[in-house]
Amino acid sequence: MKNLVLVISLCLLGGGLWANPILTGPRISELMWVDGAWQLELYNCYFDQNSLDGCYMSAAGDTAWFNTGILFLMDTYLVVQQSDLQETFTIDPTGTEINIYKDGGEWSGYCAFGPGTCTEPPLSGESLSCVGDITESFLFVRDASPSMGQPNDNTNNRGVFSGWVHDQDGNPLENVVVSLSPTSLTATTDATGTFTLQPYALQYDVHLQYYSLAMADTTISIAPDSQNSVEYQLFVPVGAHVQITPPQVSISVHPNPFNPSTEIMFNLTANDAEDAKIEIFNARGQKIRELGIDLSSRTELRDLSCSVTWDGTDAAGSPVASGIYFARLVSGGMHLAQAKMLLLQ
Ligand SMILES: [Ca+2]
Ligand SMILES: [Ca+2]
Known about the structure:
About 0% of the residues lie in helices and about 40% in strands. The protein is an all-beta fold. The protein folds into three domains: about 15-145, Immunoglobulin-like, CATH 2.60.40; about 160-235, Carboxypeptidase-like, regulatory domain (Immunoglobulin-like, Sandwich); about 250-345, Immunoglobulin-like (Sandwich). The strands form six sheets. It has a five-stranded antiparallel beta sheet with strand order 5-2-1-8-9, with no helix packed on it. It has a four-stranded antiparallel beta sheet with strand order 4-3-6-7, with no helix packed on it. A hairpin with a 4-residue loop joins strand 19 (about 275-280) and strand 20 (about 285-290). The longest helix has 4 residues, at about 270-275. The two termini are about 45 Å apart. Mean pLDDT is about 85; it is low at about 1-20 and about 245. Bound molecules: calcium ion (2 copies). One calcium ion binds next to strand 1.
């Protein structure tokens, strides 16, 4: 287990480069070095010229035109190297930005890696392969099984990212949302405080969100086929309204999944019984219903086992849609326990 290292960094490769309108022309699809010499895989994206005549590339001040007569049919992959160019073309293996232009000088392809991006340079034997829809994506990731001259196979280009999240006293934290930027990949910790993701081999900013209270930003570098285990400690202020569920309070739902109604069962201690209630939230975190708990028939307020029925309607009495909902046991403004429910219609 690696310990939490607090490093805040910025990923400059924003979402804008991920998806673009389709541009016709030579597209960069994969890049690697073989015996110290670069090789570029190009994809012909709806470019009906059938050759690279008049096309050129630029990187860090170098501009090079392709030799004439290089056959390049539409929707095919072609590996080019220095001998296919009229001028010397240098690609810095530690990072650069490569642009490609079709006949007429119109920009058509792009690849960036190294400092200032989330794509780290490939190691020996690895390529940088474009992932996602080749006609739209400009995202390159490290790939341990290159596919030069072939469509990118989307293999050996991810790693496993797992972790354990706990508070300052070593208690596991459940419901911590772990998100990786710049992707929309997220995971939520389970009751043991653990999570697992399988992200592309990129460098990420890691963001942890524990309700509204605790967060941390770190970075993680994912190599292809790597296993990455981390341990995060979040400081949860004492007395905050988000509490770690005390072991004496439990909540369960039966039946689950349900239709049209379900019973929410929980126990309470005398301290919590006073103004306890059940709040129903939808998957977007919006409170849609509150259910009071009638304790008037009880003669003794000690370790109470209670239940309330939710009929699948919101505060206005309208039936809610199929989906995931949460029943949250609340007392004195404190969130004591939560259960997930699935309404199936
Ligand atoms: Ca591969
Ligand atoms: Ca390929």
